[in-house]
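Q: How would the structure tokens look for this protein?
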Amino acid sequence: MIKVTRLNGTETVINAELIESVEGTPDTVISLTTGHRYVVQESVDEVVARVLAYRKACCRSSDSAECVPDPMG
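A: Here is the predicted structure in token form.
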């Protein structure tokens, strides 16, 4: 889960596992596999950094063999 800020200033938490794409249009639009879309204040790079941090945290707390280092991180 990652915390982001909508354009009206409210914070929301998004399931990072459901993110399909993140676009800068110039607003940052996060599209989920569920069809939901969120327009947020954070930049595309900041959203990607938060997803990578979330995934690294998941890997640190897991002994799963499926947890492999992210090539982008």
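The longest strand covers residues 19-24.

The mean pLDDT is 90.

Upvote if useful.
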